[in-house]
Amino acid sequence: TLRTIVLPLLAPAIGAGAIFAFTISFDELIVALFIAGPEQFTLPRQMLASAREYLSPTLAVAAVLVSLASLLLLGFYAVLQRGR
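The chain above was modelled as a monomer; its predicted structure follows.
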């Protein structure tokens, strides 16, 4: 019953929650810049500092991974919506 009843009913809510969480995570850099002190380096702050000093291949890889993750989520959502 879990696979045939519960998961199909939860799929839209899980998809919407994933999209909402992904959208909210883009605001993380702005919040980290305002809240964190000068001695605290979170990942978004470190990436911004790295981008200002020099263009690192690591930063480019992180940007590609974030883009791929968003495209995969969007594709998964499209497949779920087409199946209805």
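The chain has one domain: 2-82.
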